[in-house]
Amino acid sequence: MIEKESHVLVVFPHPDDEAFGVSGTIASHIKSGTGVTYACLTLGQMGRNLGNPPFATRESLPEIRKKELKAAANAMGLTDLRMMGLRDKTVEFEDDEKMVEMMQSLITETNPSLVITFYPDYCVHPDHEATARAVVRAVHRMDESTRPKLHCVAFANNTGEGLGEPDVINDVKEVMDIKLNAMRAHISQTAWILEDLEKRLGENDPEAIQWVTQERFFKYRFDQGYE
Amino acid sequence: MEPVKIEAVQELINRFANKEVYIHLETTNGSYASHFDEKFFNAGAFIRNAKVEYELGKIIGDPPSRVGLKLGSLGWIYAQGITHYELDDHGRLLMAGHDHQGKLAVSLQISETPFE
Ligand SMILES: [Zn+2]
Fold first, then answer.
1. Distance from first CA to last CA of chain A, Å, rounded?
2. What InterPro entries is this protein classified in (chain A) (predicted)?
3. Residue A30 zone, left/alpha/beta (φ > 0; ψ -120 to 50; rest)
4. Predicted complex ipTM
């Protein structure tokens, strides 16, 4: 059973980050009547899947991914989608304080009881890391009594060694179809992964089933830096 | 985009010579290369909207081809691994190299107006 929230704020840098990790959780909250805001920092302009023969160019990809992001939001029933206008692969080079301010204003405006992002140092892509740091800093600087919960997605190869087992495992079986549809919405970047996933689901591969029925989060441990 | 045809691309490169142009140049293995293979040394580079003027531009070699732009006596720009090209509806010359899985590995783009 997913804990009931008053509002959920999700912050990721790339269209499709939400689909793989948390679209079941988003859909569950929306189904139970909780408002969800998704702030997506970039349009994934630097995505590498352009096909061979190519179906898109460097310059046409952002428009495609913007449409896919909106389609994924639709699939999840999400109406408050914010596109924050940064550029893929440059997030870590933005001014750190400006990034914290962006997160602070999102939090102030949406007043979430739960914030979802990546877990700093355990999320692989430099944009993920920079996003996670900014969110953690913004939440950390709040008075402890007013802080929202902070649930983080971690998938680096050393996650188990560093963080142990996830603190929160959401069962999203009921909204599995929505999750698959959210992933399908990002078809330009997910075609290969989905083909493999659907094949494995057809074979009842336990790992694949777990992937689409469970979403795992670590509660951020505020003694780990990033003030 | 379509597969590189040397004469056609050469003709397009010539059109942008001797005028101020904006360059997008990028090489990449993707940000996940070292995640999937921890021994992989991940390197890449990216420039967007560098304003230059080249006096001579060439495309050479059966695709994947090499493209070099000579910036007068000032310097050079080159890219290798170019497989596809397109003159897009904004009149920009987009060249790119896509690997066997359809992933972009290199791109070199030339435009008379800044890229977005
Ligand atoms: Zn991402």
1. 32
2. BshB2, GlcNAc_PI_deacetylase-related, LmbE-like_dom_sf
3. alpha
4. 0.89
Q: For A170-201, give the DSSP string.
A: EE-GGGHHHHHHHHHHTHHHHHHHHHHHHHHH
pLDDT digits (tens, 9 = 90+) for A20-75: 999 999 999 999 999 999 999 999 999 999 998 999 999 999 999 999 999 999 99
Whether residues A57 and B94 touch (CB distance < 8 A) is answered with yes
Q: Looking at chain A, how many residues does it have?
A: 227
Segment holding A108, helix H or strand E: helix A96-110
How far is the alpha carbon of B98 from chain A, nearest alpha carbon, in Å?
6
Residues sharing a CB contact under 8 Å with residue A121, sequence separation 6 or more, in sequence order = A129, A156, A162, A224
User: Could you list which residues have their CB under 5 Å from ion ligand 1?
Assistant: A 14, 17
User: Within 10 Å of residue A30's Cβ, how many Cβ atoms?
Assistant: 18
| pLDDT tens per residue across span B47-106 | 999 999 999 999 999 999 999 999 988 899 999 999 999 999 999 999 999 999 999 999
pLDDT at B39 over 90: no
As a whole number of angstroms, the distance between CA B49 and CA A87 comes to 14
Cβ-Cβ pairs closer than 8 A, A with B, add up to 68
Torsion angle in degrees (nearest 10) through CA of A91, A94, A98, A101: 10
Which residue did the predictor score with more confidence, B40 or A99? Answer: A99
Measured between CA atoms, the residue of chain A closest to residue B3 is A53
**CATH topology assigned to domain B2-111:** Protein Yojf; Chain: A; (2.70.180)
Q: What is the pTM of this model?
A: 0.94
